[in-house]
Amino acid sequence: MKKVCKTIEELDLIAGEILKSYPEERIFAVSGELGAGKTTLIKSFCRKLGAADAARSPSFAIINEYEIRNPKFEIGNVKIFHFDFYRIKKEEEAFDIGIEEYLYSGNYCFMEWAERIAGLMPAEFVEIRIEAKNDGTRLIEVRS
Predict the structure, then answer these.
(1) How far apart are CA 74 and CA 18, in angstroms?
(2) Domain coordinates in residue numbering, the chain
(3) How does pLDDT run across 78-100, given as a tens digit for each residue?
(4) How many C-beta neighbours within 10 Å does residue 74 have?
(5) How far is CA 117 from the centre of its chain?
């Protein structure tokens, strides 16, 4: 799937389309250069999923956790984990935060800079690449 995003409003629509296209997936790796819009896209995912709190960048904390308050989830408390691995220098550092527990929890995991922990990623995940264009638009490519 390839989408061109011209506005923030379109980003919410694109986030909804991605979630509808991958209804069973819970692991999403979002990549792109600094300033490409990774955090902004993940904020859109959080809104679409019904996060109880407004999403913010986990750059310094490495991970933020959000509760989903959405009646379509009847299986109990579903959570969103938002990771930013920009400051990770070695994959082993991800073990310190218990990355495997998060990835295999059945909750949503949205990861910025996931390429820094490539050797720890599960076999199945959705890869989202964002490219900022000179005209201010964003090219968003999605594949699993």
Answers:
(1) 21
(2) 2-143
(3) 899 999 999 889 998 998 889 99
(4) 7
(5) 14
